[in-house]
Write a structure and sequence with these properties.
The complex is a heterodimer of chains A (337) and B (349). With 337 residues, chain A is α/β, with parallel strands linked by helices. Chain A is built from twelve helices and twelve strands. Classes of the chains: A alpha/beta (337), B mainly alpha (349).
Chain lengths: 337, 349
């Protein structure tokens, strides 16, 4: 009995100590409070239209906890708030699972569908089914080649080959000779196109390195091993923002002189551009992909508008260097760039 | 023949005692999971209004069948006291072999399908032989196979097709008939029933018949319960284990062909992680992780629960970020329920 009481007393003491510490040691910068202030200052997302509350579903090929897709989602949610849309998001990295999720959206009789076609063959049949059921479909991010054939209204995204070519050009401008292209998602056709595009316009040599993107330490170790084994590599191109940080660490441990460049942007990439640990970033503006997809579906529902004139609507590539980083760092921090 | 060699006295054996219906029911391994499945079904029927639509039920059944086809032989294997961690990627391997073989040799697609069957069975046999020869735990052996197959899938595909996915074989001879067998569907009253559901039901029936009515079924229980004792009374332990791994390989072949003929192109990096889902389905269905206990029907119920949960969350419009959490909680609940039911059943006998 006594032991229980001392236990309770100890717990109480610990709790009091934690409370006292948190009250005494306030931080005047950053933290949750700063975030809340920023959120309050940002526009309060209330719907700006009085159209019926339609339901739009978005089904992507994202894995769990993916930064890039998180930004796409927040763009889509912003548009959904403005357009008075009930927005549903689901995702699976497995083609078959993604197809099943699209099927569930059809079963729900949604008013609009946004799909990413990283694995077009897995989704061909089910997207056709959605079109047949009279659901307007917009494809985002990957699948610009298939979008029209599948019966989608528009494709919003970046042409991966063009983006890759932009990277190859930029590397050449920076006088690089030997580059490494780090692919973190096995089976993603878009990633292959990026590296192939970069190879095409880059006047030096470029090789591909496959890593497991779901396992960041492993990504770092793989790049480290490669840079350690081949000292002549003077540029590393990663295909996603989180992997740029891993490449920077790998470069340090391997004692390499390579410049790290990356596709996509996040807060740490913006910071990296500011302090010159990164060369440049190629942004495809994921926020825009999510936002536009929902907004264009709304426009189609409301006014039968279709954007793009039968061609993909491109959201990239946008080459970002240290000059632009200052402005973008703030937006990246709030998770919209 | 009794073990002591005494002449048997004609009296009623205690194993032939008449047990009541209820007690029989309580003794079934899948009872706990049936209760769970009904609960999950009712739950989603209430919270998700689109869950009960015919088309939605078709989707749920399809999702369950793609897992269930693999969960049946995995359950048998677990009753036999072993694991197979290579089952997930073996599905992808099987699809890749079939597609690449047909494409590279410009052969009739059915040739690829049969070559794939032989090679996939080879993988199963490899698992079985390694296990019985090396005496290492199956967890280690199949972990090795899992990693090797993951690498082979990627390496070979890249080597032969220059990309990470296979070339389309939809325009080749035999594709249409193979699609009918592995990936067609029937529409009955607005419900789309995929052929995988039929394969699944057949596998459940065969597995249940093997377990209950055949000598091999008795061997599985014996090997999983107490391998040394089983060997002592003349059960061919090695043959039984290899047979079980061949069963998993056969189901992997069916699933792989379904993948290929549904989508015409196979991604080489897929399938990783699914092996755990098959194991989860078997465990929710009442298989013991230590072997010697479980049923084929149970694994089907487990797969059904998995299918209902994974799709039900979407129909209920919940945030899918929480899916894994629910899955984990459900696994624990189901296993606890199974254990409790089993304890009650044992107490009343």
């Amino acid at each position: 009995m006594a032991r229980v009481r001392t236990g309770v007393r100890a717990m109480g003491a610990v709790l009091a100590a934690v409370l006292a510490a948190s009250l005494a040691g306030c931080s005047s910068t950053g933290g949750k409070r700063a975030e809340e202030r920023a959120a309050r200052q940002a526009a309060e997302g209330r719907s700006a239209v009085n159209t019926p509350r339609w339901t739009f579903a978005m089904v992507t090929h994202s894995g769990d906890g993916d930064t890039f897709w998180d930004i796409v989602q927040s763009g889509a949610e912003m548009a959904a708030r403005k357009d008075n849309i009930n927005f549903l998001y689901s995702h699976s990295a497995e083609g078959q699972q993604q197809a099943e999720l699209v099927q569930t959206a059809i079963d729900k009789k949604v008013d609009g569908l946004v799909v990413s076609l990283a694995k077009p063959d897995s989704l061909k049949a089910v997207v056709a089914k959605a079109v047949k059921a009279g659901i307007p479909v917009i494809t985002v991010n990957s699948g610009s080649a298939e979008s029209k054939a599948f019966g989608a209204l528009t494709h919003i995204g970046q042409d991966e080959s063009i983006a890759g070519e932009a990277v190859g050009d930029e590397l050449g401008k920076r006088g690089r000779k030997k580059a490494l292209c780090v692919l973190h998602e096995q089976g993603n056709v878009g990633h292959e196109q990026r590296c192939a595009g970069a190879k095409k316009t880059f006047d030096g040599t470029m090789e591909n390195l496959y890593v497991d993107g779901t396992n960041l330490p492993d990504v770092q170790a793989s790049i480290e091993a490669k840079l350690g084994a081949d000292k002549s590599i003077d540029a590393v191109v990663t295909l996603g923002a989180p992997f740029a940080a891993a490449a920077v660490k790998a470069k340090k441990t391997a004692g390499s002189k390579a410049e790290i460049d990356t596709f996509d942007l996040n807060a740490s990439v913006a910071a990296g551009l500011q302090d010159d640990s990164l060369g440049f970033a190629v942004d495809q503006q994921p926020y825009l992909q999510g936002y536009e997809a929902v907004d264009l579906l709304w426009l189609y529902r409301y006014n039968q508008n279709v954007l793009g004139g039968g061609l993909p609507v491109l959201t990239g590539p946008q080459i970002i260097t240290a000059d632009d980083a200052d402005a973008l760092a703030e937006y990246a921090k709030r998770g919209t760039r | 023949m009794t073990a002591t060699g005494q002449p048997t006295v004609p009296r009623t054996d205690e194993r032939l005692l008449h047990t009541s219906m209820l007690r029989k029911l309580l003794g079934r391994p899948e009872l706990g999971s049936v209760v769970g499945a009904v609960a999950v079904f009712l739950f989603f029927a209430i919270v998700a209004d689109s869950f009960l639509r015919p088309s939605s039920l078709g989707t749920v059944l399809y999702a369950a069948s793609t897992i269930g086809i693999m969960a049946v032989p995995v359950a048998l294997l677990m009753i036999g006291g072993e694991f197979d961690l290579s089952a997930g990627v073996m599905v992808t391997s099987s699809a890749l072999i079939s597609s690449i073989f047909s494409y590279q040799l410009t052969a009739n697609v059915w040739t690829g399908v049969f070559v794939s069957l032989l090679v996939t069975l080879g993988f199963g046999a490899f698992n079985g032989f390694m296990l019985t020869r090396t005496k290492l735990p199956s967890f280690i052996i199949t972990l090795g196979t899992f990693l090797m197959l993951t690498g082979l899938n990627l390496g070979f595909t890249k080597l032969l097709s220059d990309t990470v996915s296979t070339k389309a074989i939809g325009d080749m001879e035999g594709f249409d008939s193979a699609r009918k067998v592995f990936a067609s569907y029937l529409t009955i009253g607005g419900v789309e029933l995929k052929v995988t559901i039929l394969w699944w039901v057949v596998l459940i029936a065969v597995a249940t018949w093997i377990l209950i009515r055949t000598r091999f079924g008795n061997w599985i229980f014996a090997v999983g319960g107490q391998a040394d004792a089983a060997r002592a009374v003349g059960v061919p332990v090695i043959r039984t284990r290899i047979g079980l791994y061949l069963g998993v390989a056969f189901a992997a072949w069916i699933s792989g062909q379904h993948l290929l003929f549904s989508y015409d192109v196979v991604q080489s990096g897929e399938g990783v992680g699914n092996e755990l889902i098959y194991i989860i389905a078997a465990v929710i269905g009442g298989c013991l992780i230590t072997g010697g206990y479980g049923s084929g029907i149970g694994s089907a119920i487990g797969a059904l629960i998995f299918g209902m949960t994974s799709k039900g969350i979407v129909y209920a419009e919940w945030n899918p970020d929480w899916f894994k959490f629910f899955l984990g909680a459900m696994l624990l609940l189901a296993t606890l329920l199974n254990a409790w039911v089993r304890k009650r059943a044992e107490a009343t006998t």
